[in-house]
Specification:
By secondary structure, the chain is an alpha/beta fold. The chain is 31% helix and 16% strand. The longest helix has 20 residues.
Length: 344
């Protein structure tokens, strides 16, 4: 640092290879690449990503998407390059990636048939799907809102419109949105207004298009200076099983909060599963632990309210404890309508 007698504030800094210092959700990428085929690779920094996945470029979407993810703050990226471009090759690659500790999945594929495979793969995980999401591109044939209705799943997000970097054509919208979801620490506000770290060009939409897309379960991004900004985080789940409108899971915060509560309650109960002795005393102790956790989540602003948990022993097997909890998820206001009555 330069020595001077002049009063003021002087800053010295160093630039390091970009990697996240906070614990973010892991992201898995299924995309065409220039390296080994159908082999899951892992990187924990941008420098390692360049070495493992190869440099970004037109012929290496896997390397480009990994680079974008690290630039958005993701700490760990898994990647796999399918043997070919067909849906069957992508489905095999996705199945292989499902075996890894991946929280968010993205791909360069835009075929709805593959998206159906992704949906089925997540659904087949059952309770193990907690905390897992797929963020997919909407650049397929047909309207994005129709694609969202077809998928109709709270663990699948569609990113729209197309986002690119300078002098590149690859759609990066799903990677940017996945990065936002990965590093965000707030889960009650749907990620509304989250701005990308990197610089991107976002295709412009008309306001009526934006409203229609959001209503029908498509995450819309827009230009904000030289960055991309998420208008509102929504899932593709906008219909019930009969095809009627059902917006219970449309707000992204709903599954995020449910995942957070279920995961933390499971961790609390896991500590007691081998220590608790049957009987009313054990049930009371477990109930107290659950109430403490729910109270903590309420104080944190994750829950609005909760009911006293119900615990009982199975009639068929007294070593089985049945726990029932009920809570109301907290959600920030997305909109406020003000009506002013003015007298003059």
């Amino acid at each position: 640092m330069t020595e001077t007698m002049r009063p003021g504030i002087y800053v010295d800094y160093q630039i390091y290879p970009l990697s996240s210092q906070q614990q973010s959700k892991t992201v898995g990428v299924i995309a065409q690449g220039t390296g080994d085929k159908n082999k899951v690779l892992k990187a924990s920094s941008l420098e390692e990503a360049h070495r493992v996945f190869g440099p970004s470029g037109t012929e290496n979407p896997l390397g480009t998407l990994a680079e974008v993810l690290f630039s958005e703050g993701v700490s760990v990226v898994y990647g796999i390059s399918p043997n070919g471009s067909s849906i069957s090759f992508y489905s095999v690659a996705f199945h292989n990636l499902l075996q890894e500790p991946v929280d968010i999945f993205i791909t360069d594929q835009t075929d709805p048939l593959f998206y159906n495979s992704v949906k089925k793969g997540l659904e087949d995980l059952g309770e193990n799907a907690v905390g897992k999401y797929a963020v997919l591109l909407s650049q397929s044939s047909g309207a994005p809102e129709e694609l969202a209705k077809t998928l109709n799943y709270e663990r699948i997000l569609l990113a729209y419109p197309k986002m690119t970097r300078q002098d590149e054509s690859l759609d990066l919208s799903s990677a940017v949105l996945a990065g936002m979801l990965s590093v965000s620490e707030e889960i009650t506000g749907n990620l509304n207004g989250t701005v990308s770290v990197g610089n991107y060009t976002v295709s412009k939409l008309q306001e009526d298009q934006v409203n229609n897309l959001l209503k029908n379960g498509v995450c819309v991004l827009e230009q904000s200076g030289s960055h991309g900004e998420l208008i509102r985080g929504v899932t593709t789940k906008t219909q019930d099983e009969d095809g009627n409108a059902d917006y219970t899971y449309r707000n992204l915060s709903v599954p995020l909060i449910a995942d957070r509560v279920v995961t933390e309650l499971k961790e609390v109960l896991q500590t007691r599963i081998n220590a608790a002795v049957g009987g009313s005393v054990a049930l009371s102790s477990l109930s107290s632990l659950i109430v403490c956790k729910l109270e903590a989540l309420q104080e944190e602003g994750i829950l609005f309210s909760y009911r006293t948990p119900k615990l009982s022993l199975s009639e068929e097997d007294q070593s089985v404890c049945i726990v029932e909890v009920a809570f109301t998820a907290a959600q920030w206001f997305s909109q406020i309508y003000l009506t002013a009555h003015i007298s003059v």
